[in-house]
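In this supplementary section we document a worked example of the pipeline. Step one takes a protein sequence of length 125 as its only input; no multiple sequence alignment statistics are reported here. Step two produces a three-dimensional model, which step three serialises into structure tokens for compact storage. The input and output of this example are shown verbatim.
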Amino acid sequence: MESSISFRNMQQATVDEKVNDLIMAFKTSVDNSDNMKNNFIDTKVGKSVVVRHYVEMPIPVLIGFVMLTLGFAMIILPAPKYFEIFTIFYFSLNDGFTLMDLISLIIVLIGVFVIVKSYFKFANQ
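The serialised model returned by step three reads:
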């Protein structure tokens, strides 16, 4: 038996019609409870989802900090002359801003971006 009340005539419906519609809606939801029996989500599965979520949370932050550290290490530590490629801007005759420094700064900025993005991603959840 289909529901006899539409949204348009809900105000004019009698109490018996509303109750019958409520009973029919309940019966159809009970008939659909077989779908609920086929879903095997219990506390064990729920816990594994939560644990996986909290294990996945610090990994992007750690990757960001590693990139930040490696970028600063590339800037601070001296590199051999054959590895510095070429100088973009000279501060003095023997010192300047090299292409390797530019690549290091890009790595640092990517690390900061990954940290900030992962923070906002997990702060919203």
